[in-house]
């Protein structure tokens, strides 16, 4: 394993009940990169992220994070190690303020000064969240809720962020703003494994891409190469 490899999947297979959603895939993410996982609905993308973060148990294969086998670790232990999952749908907690939602992201951080430092950093990154700090997080707009979900992940101090469908349900203008946020996070040093329905936009952001079809990786390569091949875009990513 090379030193710049932060995440590696070896032959990962996972299921929902009796449905084999992921069927023995290999995947690598290098430190400092955005790697995107693409495919149609039901291809196994979300299951892959949930398997990495421990929300779904692998039936076979290994998940290696910084060289350590985390396949059998509990989800909270995986999060504590630095793998933070921003789920599809954002999962902002109703009845809790923006500040309280953010503070939940630092549940493993015992140092009060460090928690405050990270909260200040999130508010600097997303000024709108600071102005809404005492508002119920569930009453924010869709775009603001996505900022809150990402900010909550950053409170943890992640080494890698698993980002699932950040643009889902957002207006086109907010989709572009969300992708700018992802790009800024990566430029600031955050490694990201991105699942995104807007394949063309994801490939513009990413360094490397994988295309899943029915739980199997059909294609992989540099993002610029995947997006430049019309036959690939038409066959696997939509017209």
Key descriptive features of the protein:
single chain, 239 residues, alpha/beta, Rossmann fold, six-stranded mixed beta sheet, four-stranded antiparallel beta sheet, 10 strands, 28% strand, globular
What is the percentage of strand-forming residues?
25-35%
> Superfamily at the CATH H level of the domain at 5-89 and 161-237?
P-loop containing nucleotide triphosphate hydrolases
- Number of discrete helical segments: 10
Strand order of the largest sheet: 6-7-8-3-9-10
Structural class: alpha/beta
CATH architectural name of the domain at 5-89 and 161-237: 3-Layer(aba) Sandwich
Oligomer: single chain
* Rg over C-alpha atoms, rounded to the nearest angstrom: 17 Å
Uncertain segments of ≥5 residues (pLDDT<50)? none
What shape does the CA trace take?
globular
Arithmetic mean pLDDT:
89
Largest sheet: 6 strands, mixed
Q: Which fold does the CATH topology of the domain at 5-89 and 161-237 refer to?
A: Rossmann fold
């Amino acid at each position: 394993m090379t030193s710049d490899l932060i995440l590696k999947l070896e032959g990962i297979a996972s299921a929902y009940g009796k449905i084999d959603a992921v069927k023995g895939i290999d995947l690598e993410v290098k430190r400092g990169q955005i790697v995107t996982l693409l495919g149609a609905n039901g291809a196994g993308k979300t299951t892959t992220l949930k398997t990495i973060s421990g929300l779904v148990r692998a039936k076979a294969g290994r998940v290696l994070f910084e060289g350590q086998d985390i396949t059998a670790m509990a989800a909270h232990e995986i999060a504590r190690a630095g793998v933070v999952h921003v789920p599809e749908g954002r999962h902002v907690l109703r009845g809790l303020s923006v500040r309280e939602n953010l503070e939940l992201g630092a549940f493993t951080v015992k140092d009060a000064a460090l928690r405050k430092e990270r909260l200040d950093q999130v508010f600097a990154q997303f000024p709108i969240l600071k102005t809404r700090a005492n508002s119920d997080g569930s009453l924010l707009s869709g775009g603001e809720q996505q900022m809150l979900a990402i900010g909550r992940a950053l409170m943890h101090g992640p080494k890698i962020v698993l980002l699932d469908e950040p643009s889902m349900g957002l207006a086109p203008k907010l989709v572009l703003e969300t992708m700018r946020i992802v790009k800024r996070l990566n430029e600031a040093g955050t490694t990201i494994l991105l699942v995104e329905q807007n394949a063309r936009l994801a490939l513009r952001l990413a360094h490397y891409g994988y295309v899943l079809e029915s739980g199997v990786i059909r294609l992989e390569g540099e993002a610029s190469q995947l997006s430049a091949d019309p036959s690939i875009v038409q066959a696997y990513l939509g017209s």
